[in-house]
Amino acid sequence: MAAAAPVTAGEDERRRRLGAALEGPQPQEGANVEAESGELSRLRAELAGALAEMETMKAVAEVSESTKAEAVAAVQRQCQEEVASLQAILKDSISSYEAQISALKQERQQQQQDCEEKERELGRLKQLLSRAHPLDSLEKQMEKAHEDSEKLREIILPMEQEIEELKAKLLRAEELIQEIQRRPQHAPSLHGSTELLPLSRDPSPPLEPLEELSGDGGPAAEAFAHNCDDSASISSFSLGGGAGSSASLPRSRQGLSPEQEETASLVSTGTLVPEGIYLPPPGYQLVPDTQWEQLQMEGRQLQKDLESISRERDELQEGLRRSNEDCAKQMQVLLAQVQNSEQLLQTLQGTLSQAQERVQLQMAELVTTHKCLHNEVKRLNEENRGLRAEQLPSSAPQGLQQEQGEEESLPSSVLELQQLLRHTQQEAQAQLQAQEHGAERLRIEIVTLREALEEETAARASLEGQLRVQREETEVLEGPAPRPLRTEGEGAAAAGRAGD
Questions:
Q1: How far apart are CA 312 and CA 129, in angstroms?
Q2: Phi-psi region of 242 (alpha: psi -120 to 50; beta: other; left: phi over 0)
Q3: pLDDT of residue 76
Q4: 452 and 62 in contact (C-beta within 8 Å)?
Q5: Res. 2: pLDDT tops 70
Q6: Residues 124-135 pLDDT 10s
């Protein structure tokens, strides 16, 4: 208490001196006030310039932030456009593939139906051909029979002439026989019979055996024609003179001798018609002309049908071959298109994976930037709190030190006192300005960091939404392939949330 009393007394004395010094020179103080006002105006001008510079720096910072936001938005738009283009390309390719696959399935079904129809048509043609083979053989047989009949006609014409000659000879022989029968002498009758036997036997050569008639073509046909000539000659003989001879022989035998009866029996034996030797050879059949013409017409019609069926078969085979070639060409073209589409799909998948990698890298960069900004905000907040805490306790010691310094260095004159006052005012203004600048800078940094943090949070949220949508679309399009990308995106999002 004793120490405090002198101090307070000294302070009162110093204050009285200071008041007296201030009250002393009034005009000089007015000049000093004017000078201080000029200095204050100058300081205000400097403060205005500093504020303008600060505003300029704020504008530059805002422009840089806006450019950064625009760059991030441009990157996001580019990623969205790339993803949208990839999705559109994938949808178009999938729709085109589905359309091509459906067209191929329809074409394949149509080709299968055409092949089945052609197979059925070929089966029907084969059946018709199998049925047409006997007709072909019958036609050949008919042609062969026609040729044989032509040959027989060539043989029969001279034989008919011989038959006419034989008829004339037989008539003459009958006349001779009747003359011999009328004559009662024996010698002439024997002579006439010996003349008659060569006449009756020479024109008709011996008959061919039946075994030779069973052969093919020429010899059998000639033998058959020869026997037919013999049968015709004998039948004409029997028809021409049989009535008279059969009527005359019984009457003449009543008055004939044994030699005459023997001659008559030989003549009657020569005139008998042999039985069972006029059968056609095997494989031949005697038909009338109308049936022969009808068979020929049927054969020609069957030949035409066979030719038309063969032409249809050739046309069907040609059409089948052309359709197979067209189908093979179309299959090659479609295979080439499928290969190109697969290559395009692989390229799109590579581009999509690269875009996903870029998005993941950007997400990682944004996460790291967010962490850095978060740490910087924390640090600035701590510095701000520390500065605020330091300003309050440091003001009291500084005041005590200043009072002690003032006590120690009190001015002895008015000029020194004015200088001290001016110096203290300048220091106070400078300190105040420094504090204001520091506080303003801290506020600006805090606001800027908060805005950047909000922008980064919004960008991260939008990127996470885009990545989620892209992941879902890729899962729908590609199945379980992009699972590692989803886990990486989830890890990046988890790291960002842990940083928050």
A1: 12
A2: alpha
A3: 79
A4: no
A5: no
A6: 877 776 665 555
Lowest mean pLDDT among 31-40, 139-148, 158-167, 407-416: 407-416
Alpha-carbon torsion 8, 9, 11, 15, what sign?
positive
Give the CA distances from residue 109 to residues 320, 338, 367, 433, in Å, rounded to whole numbers and listed in that order. Answer: 15, 20, 57, 91
**Helix pair angle (4-23, 414-478), 10° resolution:** 100
- In sign, the C-alpha dihedral spanning 51, 52, 55, 56 is negative
Alpha carbon 237 to chain centroid distance? 92
Looking at per-residue pLDDT, the higher value among 142 and 262 belongs to: 142
d(CA 47, CA 53): 10
Q: How far apart are CA 115 and CA 317, in angstroms?
A: 11
Q: What is the domain partition of the chain in residue ranges?
A: 132-289
Residue 355: what residue type? A
Q: 427 is written with which tokens? A: 């220091």
Tokens representing 334 are: 């479609």
- How is 316-341 classified by DSSP, letter by letter? HHHHHHHHHHHHHHHHHHHHHHHHHH
pTM, whole model, 2 decimals?
A: 0.26
Task: List the single range of 49-53, 231-235, 277-281, 448-452 with lowest mean pLDDT.
Answer: 231-235
For residues 181 and 91, give the distance between their C-alpha atoms in angstroms, rounded to a whole number. Answer: 126
Give residue 157's identity as a one-letter amino acid code. L
For 112-160, what is each residue's pLDDT tens digit?
888 888 888 878 877 776 665 555 566 677 777 778 777 777 777 777 8
| Identity of the residue numbered 265 | S
| Residue type at position 253 | R
226 neighbors 208 (Cβ within 8 angstroms) = yes
pLDDT mean over 300-317: 86
